[in-house]
Amino acid sequence: MTPSAEDVLQNTANIAVLGVGAVGQLICHQLTAKAAKVLLLTRDVSGPQTLTCQPLMDASATSCVPDSVTHQYPSLITTNLTAEHLAHIRLLIVTTKAYQVVALLTPLLAKLRADCHILLLHNGMGPHLALSVLLAQHPAMGLSLGTTSQGAMRLSQWQIKHTGTGLTQLGHGFGAVINDNYRALLLDAIPDSHWQDDIITSLWQKLAINCAINPLTAIHQCQNGALAAPQHQDTISQLLLELIPVAKAQGVKLELDNLLEKVNQVIHLTAQNYSSMYQDITHHRPTEIAQINGYVSQCAQEYGLKTPLHHAILASIKSLEAQD
Ligand code: KPL
């Protein structure tokens, strides 16, 4: 007999994943493969701010071999997210689109346990700054930050394909530090994952990669691999040259050669992939441009720096978003 959502809660799902796109589902699979009890939180189609949860019933039916393996949830129960669910959540992993993070977390914070720990694992930067202000009201909560290059693709709503291994970097953001057991579980469950003392530098490095690959593939409607061509390499170098002084103004030291190497490594390793921004534009969905090149432009403005190419790219993507 399939257990009810309440039966599952008896086993106390104390980790929740907010955002059930490909990466969120992949992290869920990786955690449940280590016998963690995980709730998937998703927006209820009946209301824009209503969350429902999908307790995972049977992780054993999902295989977790990396690369090209399809994961599917065999038996999901959708139930309204109750105060009881929230009372159990000690670690909330946020894998939504960057532009959804603050809107979804703002009403949730007051309902979570006072000592709940939040891990942000999304593309782009910026939401952590807004959250640092909101979390000032919740002194026992803490925030960890992370970035992952694991590849995953959604085949259907609850079916994903793990398309590529990749580095995952996690680290302390602010507030209370993550409990040692959760930190150990994350590092054990996610392949090639590492705890970084200086996570902000890692996030800027990933931001640089996304600033180059995401908008250019969306504008030129190409796979990541096409950016290896010389005409794109000049644009990429220019984007990185503009970004480096902005990161420096925030105390983050980046070097052009090293960044170019990292960007080209990703172009090479994900040559056949279509970037998330390419896919968002293709499917007429909002993009994360405001948290990628937009974040660089906004920080630059605050420091009186000029980033004309990021600015122009931001405008191009906004105009593509507006074409429906
Ligand atoms: O993170 C990515 C994305 O598509 O958002 C990259 C690294 C560019 C891989 O496609």
TrEMBL record:
Membrane is among the record's keywords: no
Pathway: Cofactor biosynthesis; (R)-pantothenate biosynthesis; (R)-pantoate from 3-methyl-2-oxobutanoate: step 2/2
Molecular function GO terms recorded: 2-dehydropantoate 2-reductase activity; NADP binding
NADP in keyword set: yes
EC number(s) recorded for this UniProt protein: 1.1.1.169
Entry GO CC: cytoplasm
Function: Catalyzes the NADPH-dependent reduction of ketopantoate into pantoic acid.
Protein name, UniProt field: 2-dehydropantoate 2-reductase
